[in-house]
Specification:
The strands form five sheets. The protein has a nine-stranded antiparallel sheet. A three-stranded antiparallel sheet has the order 4-6-5, covered by helices on one side. Strands 9-10-19 form a three-stranded antiparallel sheet, with no helix packed on it. Helices cover 30% and strands 24% of the residues. The protein has two domains: 2-56 and 205-345, T-fold (Roll), CATH 3.10.520; 80-172, T-fold (Orthogonal Bundle). It is of the alpha+beta class. The radius of gyration is 20 Å and the shape is globular. The structure holds adenosine-5'-diphosphate and magnesium ion. The site of magnesium ion (MG) has 5 residues, from helix 8.
């Protein structure tokens, strides 16, 4: 595959100012829609991040409110921290009992296990013990010792997830194993919210769930929407490139999202290499996946980030309809062949 590489240019002050103004006016800038303004934009805070729905046609506000209510309900079910949700209930019965869950939760867990197998464990939803050890999600930053890592690794690994399909139930092999769906939750939820809005008859909208962007239709000008890709070296909401074309989901993962800097200058971030038990360090800074399924895009963005550019590209080539953009710590940008015509760097 021929990869085109370009250098990211420095951000100009004016660009930042324009972006701040756009955010203040709550246009659909989060996903950089075409020229037309949305008829309605609403946001809520969910899963520690901003979820925004912009609709580009006349719409009953109630439909959008219902979509948010549905979003929060899905979040509750998939969050480790909502005690009545499926995931929290599975975690608290680890090593003790099978827990009956929604069929949709079961399907999602099965899908995650399937991708763990395909990626030789690079993607793994059973890393709760490791994620807690490093404290990146909680803000209790901790540089783990090898002994601590070894201990946590005894409680990770997707093979510890047992499925009883007939009874729609899940059990974790032993106490201390913790499911954490952080790498797939937002993509999955944005996909479900898209389905919900389409069922309600919405034909033109953008859902942006913390940078997981999904599209419904085109904007009012009948032009395809354009989706901005977060600049991993810039402020939040600052883009370095836009993607247009017919694909309807874009998800980015990167080491710039949640991290702390160690005294050694190392950036300890939130994407774990499950084999090593520490944040993945392979020269990548960001991976964006563009395809038609946000659940898949979210899984792959995390998986490929762990696999690294070379292995990740080879893996993605085995799939149809999946494109990607890689940004290295050296600010090298690599775009897969099929995306080049729809990918544009923003001049800064
Ligand atoms: P974001 O949360 O920014 O959307 P990701 O989709 O890449 O980013 O998910 C990262 C989250 O997934 C982490 O915060 C953690 O909860 C969990 N996680 C970390 N490493 C892995 C991994 N190798 N496989 C699956 N989940 C992971
Ligand atoms: Mg992900």
């Amino acid at each position: 595959m021929q990869n085109r590489t370009r250098r990211l240019k420095k951000t100009s002050f004016i660009f930042i100012l324009i972006l701040i103004l756009m955010m203040l006016f709550q246009t659909a800038c989060a996903s950089s829609a075409g020229k037309k303004e949305p008829e309605l934009t609403k946001s809520v805070l969910s899963m520690d991040t901003l979820a925004q729905i912009s609709v580009y046609e006349k719409v009953d506000e109630k439909v959008v409110d219902e979509a948010f209510a549905y979003m929060l309900q899905l979040e509750e079910n998939l969050s480790r921290y909502a005690p009545n949700g499926d995931i929290a209930r599975i975690n608290s019965a680890a090593g003790v009992a099978y827990v009956k869950v929604d069929e949709e939760t079961l399907e999602l867990i099965e899908k995650c296990i399937d991708y763990s197998e395909q990626t030789e464990g690079a993607f793994d939803i059973s890393l709760g013990a490791l994620i807690d050890l490093w404290g990146i999600a909680t803000g209790e930053n901790h540089i783990a010792s090898q002994e601590e890592i070894n201990e946590a690794l005894r409680h990770t690994g997707y093979k510890n997830i047992f499925i009883d399909k007939e009874n729609s139930a899940v059990m974790l092999a032993k106490q201390g194993v913790i499911l954490d769906l952080g790498a797939v939750g937002k993509g999955y939820i944005s996909e479900k919210v898209r389905e919900f809005l389409v069922e309600k008859g919405v034909k033109s909208a953008i859902i942006n769930f913390g940078g997981n962007v999904v599209l419904i239709g085109t904007n009012k000008g009948k032009q395809p929407f354009r989706i901005g890709i977060q600049d991993p070296f810039g402020q939040r909401g600052e883009y370095f490139a836009v993607v247009s074309g017919s694909k309807t989901a874009l998800v980015s993962s990167g080491s710039y999202e949640r991290y702390f800097l160690g005294p050694d200058g190392v950036r300890y971030h939130h994407i774990m290499n499950p084999a090593e038990g520490r944040p993945a360090q392979n020269g990548l800074c960001q991976v964006s996946i563009v395809c038609d399924d946000a659940t898949l895009a979210d899984i792959l963005s995390t998986a490929v980030f762990v696999m690294g550019e070379e292995k990740g590209l080879a893996y993605l080539q085995t799939m149809d309809g999946v494109e990607a953009v890689f940004v290295s710590e050296e600010k090298q940008v690599t775009v897969t062949e099929g995306l080049k015509k729809d990918f544009k760097m923003i001049a800064k």
